Amino acid sequence: MFSTPFRLLRAVGPSIRTGWLLLGIILALVLLCEAGLRLALTVRDRLLDRQTAHQLVEVRAGVDAYQGADWVRDYIRELEASYRFAWQSYVYWRRSPYQGWYINVNRDGLRATWNPPPQDVAGDPPPVRVFTFGASTLWGYGARDDYTVASYLSKLLHEKGYRAEVTNYGEAAYVGTQGLITLLRCLQRDDVPDIALFYDGINDTFSSYQNNEAGIPQNEQLRREEFNLTNRRGEQFRLLLAHHFWGFRRFVTGLRRRITNTGPDTWRQTHPLSDQLARQTVRVYESNLATVESLGRRHGFEPLFYWQPNIFSKQHRSPDEQTTFEHFADLGEWFDKVYRRVRRSTALDNNPRFHDISGLFNELEKPEAPYYIDATHLSEPGNQLIATAMVDDVIELIERRRAAAAEQAGR
What we know:
By secondary structure, the protein is an alpha/beta fold.
């Protein structure tokens, strides 16, 4: 009675063995191809990284705003090496600690700033604490530690006889709200400045362009995609495949980019950029200013706000600046729309703490002199000009605080 099952097993047995053999051969070929792709891509990456790194250094170092300075190549290598970030609650990221010749970041993720050595003179008041907030332009992308806007501001105050301690809270890609939250976190730790200085404009404008929505950080779509990622149906399996078969993933991704012709300018937007979006961009900025001023009244610090220049607002450009301007011409149209609305804002125009310095480089004796190393970041002489435009306002607030303290003491 067992003859029928045995005959069936003998009949299908070779097919099962053949199927398992084919499956094993296919799996072996997949693993062999994955190993080959990994080897090829690793070798390619190392060769391209060396070539790209060298080209990157040479291109950036050759920008006319640097005027052939001998430190630039080593600085750019440090800049790339320091470009590592750690998670930071509420604001998403903050640079990881780094030590170099030209760039130093402490364990709190703050860029080193030039400050005069402390003086232990009996009876002297403590130095004025100035916290500066902004994005990579304030952080000092393109400049050495001692030549950022914050460092120049500290030097200028020192030269004019004012004892100050300037702290650089700037960070790459931050928008104004991230700077506001950074200040709020300081206040929650009872770390209160005497003066809180905000230097914004570029990233707030670009974020609206990128996201087609005002008031959110850059690359917010990536954060949405990452949220609860591993709990989605099928995502764990996809991530597992992507992790163990990254050679195939890299190959397919590269092939898809070639087919769809997506390149390094994928940030460019094709959606219409409306007047309403420009109004909302400025409205968010106005709201942030009002919030900081309210915090200042409650905690006893003085706020200052600066709307920053960019290469599109510079009317007379050097040859390299003109090349950059032409490459980003469509983005320039959007910047012009937002910046014009800032100049028409009644709330900002009537606020004595707000200063629009976007036209600063048009008022110089030689306005065609190069100051931009790219579309947004300044050379060290450019940073010095920005700090110079700020220092008298800071001194006015210092004197005002001294007068108020003296009046209070006399009562």
